[in-house]
Design goal:
Helices cover 69% and strands 0% of the residues. By secondary structure, the chain is mainly α. Helix 3 packs across helix 4. The mean pLDDT is 94.
């Protein structure tokens, strides 16, 4: 799995940026991390399309399911896609923490490709 494109992000700074930008940074983070996971998973799908879906009723759930599935594939099912999807519904910040922790670990690890 290619991981040299994954950017390490400071989680405290992310929270500060999300507050300062009134949540706009969270949308940027969603897009950036989805794109990073898709690339690591060997896919080149439209991350922008999934961001647009976030703002359309019902399609937002499909977007979150897609994100959850990409994360599950990226993490080799460390957490099943269904669990991540349910976390999106119940308490989205936990998804932010889980995903960013694994992305930071991948950014710190030597690249395999």
């Amino acid at each position: 799995m290619k991981t040299d494109h994954i950017k390490k992000r400071n989680m405290i700074m992310q929270v500060v940026l999300a507050v300062i930008t009134l949540g706009i940074y969270a949308i940027y983070w969603y897009y950036s991390t989805l794109k990073e996971m898709q690339t690591a998973n060997g896919k080149n799908e439209g991350a922008v399309m999934w961001i647009v879906f976030l703002f359309i009723p019902i399609l937002g759930w499909f977007s979150n399911w897609h994100y959850s599935s990409e994360y599950a594939e990226f993490s080799h099912e460390k957490y099943p896609a269904l669990l991540i999807f349910l976390a999106f519904i119940v308490f989205p910040p936990i998804v932010w923490f889980i995903v960013q922790t694994d992305l930071n670990a991948a950014a710190d690890a030597p690249s395999a490709g």
